[in-house]
Write a structure and sequence with these properties.
By secondary structure, this protein is of the alpha/beta class. Helices cover about 40% and strands about 20% of the residues. The chain contains 9 helices and 7 strands; from the N terminus they run βαβαβααβαβαβαβαα. Helix 4 packs across helix 5.
Length: about 240
């Protein structure tokens, strides 16, 4: 049994689709998978949340669990406080993931926003949950300008807390990448001091489930159950040095 925490350098950068790709690759290898969303914000009752979207894309009977759902699209601590609802604490995230891990080969814990977004008024974060679980963190980053700084800051925060970074995945690789995106293929691993483990293409989340599952292993490195090769991808996509 394995637990991987999926965080990001910000919001709306492809964490959910990347989580779904990892889940799909694991299912293709015959592993049982659960996805845990500690705090789902900005989704009304009855609407599909991120965990359900992972299950839709990855298929194969993924176990999807939310610990809490708050109606406003805000940081979890603020969303809970404004809704008059109980906040989610890192120990609760760790307990839930640990229980899922007793029944599944792989548990994916998908955070909300970035690594240090507050879950509760005591300042608990996803990083705290990862530390309690002794689980590695997969950092999902954007491709373009500005990503090196946010990736380096996330990596520094993980090191400061004694949490291992599994690597970096680009959550939304553009169909027509600009110069910054292409240069960042070589620069991201240096900023993160961790390997580049995948590049999920722009628009992947709009694919039908079967098409998504067929393609997912080609977006991820072997460390995540895929066939994607960072060196080959970088040689093909990165600009030539002058």
């Amino acid at each position: 049994m394995t637990v991987i925490v999926v965080s990001g350098t910000g919001t709306e950068i492809g964490k959910t689709v990347t989580t779904a790709a990892v889940a799909a690759a694991a299912l293709a290898a015959g592993r049982s998978v659960a996805v845990l969303k500690p705090a789902q914000t900005g989704v009304a009752p009855g609407e599909a949340g991120d965990a359900q979207e992972v299950a839709r894309l990855a298929g194969g009977g993924v176990t999807a669990l939310e610990l809490a759902r708050f109606p406003e699209p805000l940081a979890p601590d603020t969303a809970a406080r404004r809704a008059g609802m109980a906040q989610v604490r890192p120990c609760e995230v760790a307990d839930a993931a640990g229980k899922l891990a007793t029944e599944h080969d792989l548990v994916l814990v998908e955070g909300a926003g970035g690594l240090l977004v507050r879950l509760d008024d005591e300042g608990g974060t996803l990083a705290d949950a990862a530390r309690l679980l002794d689980a590695p963190v997969l950092v999902v980053a954007s491709a373009g300008l500005g990503t090196l700084n946010t990736t380096a800051l996330t990596a520094e925060a993980l090191r400061a807390r004694g949490v291992r970074q599994l690597g970096v995945a680009i959550g939304n690789w553009p169909a027509a990448p600009d110069l910054a995106s292409r240069c960042n293929l070589a620069d991201l691993p240096r900023s993160a001091d961790a390997p580049l483990l995948g590049a999920v293409p722009q628009g992947a989340g709009s694919l039908e489930g079967a098409a998504f599952r067929a393609a997912a292993v080609g977006w991820l490195a072997p460390e995540l159950g895929g066939t994607w090769d960072a060196a080959s991808f970088t040689r093909r996509e990165a600009p030539r040095e002058r």
